[in-house]
Design brief:
This is Gfo/Idh/MocA family oxidoreductase. InterPro entries: Gfo/Idh/MocA-like_OxRdtase_N, Gfo/Idh/MocA_oxidrdct_glycsds, GFO_IDH_MocA-like_dom, NAD(P)-bd_dom_sf. Keywords: Oxidoreductase. The protein has 348 residues and is of the alpha/beta class. It is built from twelve helices and 14 strands. The strands form two sheets. The chain has an eight-stranded mixed β-sheet with strand order 8-9-10-7-11-12-13-14, covered by helices on one side. The chain is globular. 45% of the residues are buried. It binds nicotinamide-adenine-dinucleotide.
Length: 348
């Protein structure tokens, strides 16, 4: 039996981590902590766990062998590092941390302490993505030329447990990143996973087009980003992410190869479609994407526990997450944040 601790008891903890641990026969949710004490206590009561007053007290319990870190972005590194130093295995939510150095330090801390560090990149566990990776490697659409990937939804102000325009996701100090890293790290990681290639060149355009905070002024982080990525074997593509899609969530990816096109989550029914150069079309009905409104099992928690019990490297290891974050950091560093109005003036 694995005794688990949950640090941060908001939406992602309540919709994925807690129920997915509870569904396993070999896990006991032993301790929880949230800086909102009432929330922590309510969750503890629901799961028969102990509610702690600080996360350090939770980490001091020697019976707890592993923790999920489900807090706001600005505390991922600090809590994960202390947990690893305390000898716990760590499953940290994305985005992994705020800087390259923090991400690298987390990986080093896991290695130094001989513990597993995983990051919640759940897109890798979707059956359609796994099948797409296999088919791409088999050459189903030939050599990859280009790609486009999208992740847009209505934004975190309705998702967060502390919903509203003052949501921490809009707060530059707590979130640090906007949509580019919040949603973009999922798709950056997905492109690396699908293609098995590293990103060697990146550039992003970051904008705040629509979202306003509680004071009615535009939020200080980006709510829309377009990113250009080039892969090591020469293919190039775009990633579009945004928090201002008030229609149906878009989680689609299209891969253009020399022999055809592969479409992922572009069709309601058929999650993987291959259109070949000769006009043939094969449609696979595999699964539905996990959306904010429609939650399904993420697979991340099972992977975490299995990695611990089998003592094996994970496909969502800290090292893999670090490589995806490196691409995100580099895109943000190279980003154009002037806004379109500024650009238009420049072109005249
Ligand atoms: N893998 C995914 O697809 C996915 C989806 C949503 C959110 N997330 C990530 O999960 C993390 C949490 O997001 P959420 O949607 O659950 O947010 P949320 O606002 O619903 O919940 C955050 C919770 O953490 C608590 N908290 C914040 N900082 C804390 C700290 N320093 N110590 C203790 N408690 C703290 C808050 O009180 C709140 O209960 C974020 O980093 C987010 O990016 C990942």
């Amino acid at each position: 039996m694995y005794n688990i601790g949950i640090i941060g008891c908001g939406k992602i903890a309540q919709l994925r981590h807690l129920p997915e641990y509870a569904a396993r026969g070999d896990v006991r949710i032993a301790g929880v902590y949230d800086r909102n004490q009432e929330r922590g206590e309510a969750v503890a009561k629901n799961y028969g766990a102990k509610s702690y007053h600080t996360y350090e007290e939770l980490l001091a319990n020697p019976e707890i062998v592993a923790v999920s870190v489900c807090t706001a972005n600005n505390s991922h590194a600090e809590i994960s590092m202390k947990a690893l130093q305390a000898g716990k295995h760590v499953l940290c939510e994305k985005p992994m941390a705020l800087t390259r150095e923090e991400c690298r330090e987390m990986v080093r801390a896991a290695e130094r302490n001989g513990r597993h560090l995983l990051v919640g990149h759940n897109q890798r566990f979707l059956k359609t993505h796994q099948e797409a990776r296999r088919l791409l490697q088999e050459g189903a659409v030939g050599k990859l030329i280009s790609f486009e990937t999208h992740f847009t939804h209505a934004g975190p102000e309705t998702w967060s447990i502390d919903a509203g325009k003052n949501v921490w996701f809009f707060d530059k100090d707590k979130a640090v990143f906007g949509a580019m890293a919040d949603l973009g790290v999922h798709k950056t990681d997905l492109i690396r996973y699908l293609t098995g290639q590293e990103i060697v060149l990146s550039h992003a355009f970051l904008e705040t087009l629509d979202k306003k905070g509680g004071d009615g002024t535009p939020i200080a982080v980006d709510d829309y980003a377009v990113c250009y990525y080039r892969l090591e074997q020469g293919a190039a593509g775009t990633m579009t992410v945004g928090w201002s899609n008030y229609g149906r969530e878009d989680n689609s990816t299209i891969l253009y190869g020399q022999e055809g096109v592969m479409k992922l989550y572009c069709d309601e029914k058929y999650s993987l479609i291959i259109e070949k150069k000769d006009g043939t079309r094969v449609s696979h009905e595999i699964d539905r994407i996990q959306t904010n409104a429609g939650q399904s099992k993420s697979g991340v928690i099972d992977e975490f526990i299995e990695c611990i019990s089998e003592d094996r490297e994970s496909i969502i290891s800290g090292r893999e997450a670090l490589a995806s974050m490196e691409a995100v950091f580099s895109a943000i560093e190279n980003a154009d944040t002037m806004g379109l109005a500024g650009k238009r003036r420049e072109l005249r």
